[in-house]
Amino acid sequence: MSLLENRDDVKELVENLNFKEKVKRSLTLIEEAYEKYGDGLVVANSLGKDSVCVWDLAKRVNPKIRGFIVTTRFKPKETVQFMHQAVVQYPEIKVYKNDAEIPEKLYETDPDKCCDILKVEPTRRAIEDMKVTCWVTGLRCTEGRTRTDFKEVEERDKGLAKLNPILIWKEREVWQYLALYGVKVNPLYTEGYRSLGCWPCTHITTDENERAGRWIGTSKCGGECGIHTRPLKTNVAGDGI
Ligand code: SF4
User: Whole-prediction pTM value?
Assistant: First the structure.
């Protein structure tokens, strides 16, 4: 039976599989999806720990697998530098960005709109431009309050599959993988961040919740930028600024 059929209980898998079994399952998910979607399978890379883990797994399945990075004008300089290194090492990664003019401090007055313009729009563009039929993400169901209901394989947009191959991994298992396989990570983690994003919306906290440092002081606190929740097959141009 193919893992792409999504038959297993995600919560049971989180607790019952050991590290080695999880790695094997993730590789199998990517392998099966690559067999099905071929070059239409593309990895979304946010340059955080989960993304670099998925990127490394994908490269083990097939070095030809492509990727895209969505960046914004508000990414910390360390992340930008890390991105440049990744693109030099992997020319099969394309970078997308929205340089449209937006109101000053939109991230404070309307962070949903800000993310929609700076993150969701370029993601939609990447999917269209790279002819993506299956995008691969580093989403994990133990990461925070907004991430508990996802599946390993989804089709939120008709004609666009979404593969979350490390959905059942815990934070510790991601770090275990990165350490054991010598995967380079964004240097900002040495500062104490646990989840990385744009600098105005990312803070270091001691909260239990891994994403608690995201969008502190707004209704989005610990939440989502929208790429996992908003439709990705429609044109953002109509949304306006
Ligand atoms: S994370 Fe903050 S700065 Fe970045 S796009 Fe979203 S609201 Fe804007």
Answer: 0.92
Q: Cα 77 from chain centroid? A: 19
- Residue closest via CA to ligand 1's atom 1 equals 198
- pLDDT, one tens digit per residue, over 90-113 is 999 999 999 999 999 999 999 999
Question: How many whole angstroms separate alpha carbon 27 and alpha carbon 72?
Answer: 30
**Helices (DSSP H) in 38-167: which residue ranges?**
49-61, 77-89, 106-109, 111-115, 121-129
Report the nearest-CA residue for atom 6 of ligand 1. Answer: 115
CA-to-CA distance for 126 and 149, rounded, in angstroms?
Answer: 25
Q: Give, in degrees to the nearest 5, the angle at Cα 135 between 130 and 137.
A: 130
Residue 231 Cα to ligand 1 midpoint, Å, equals 18
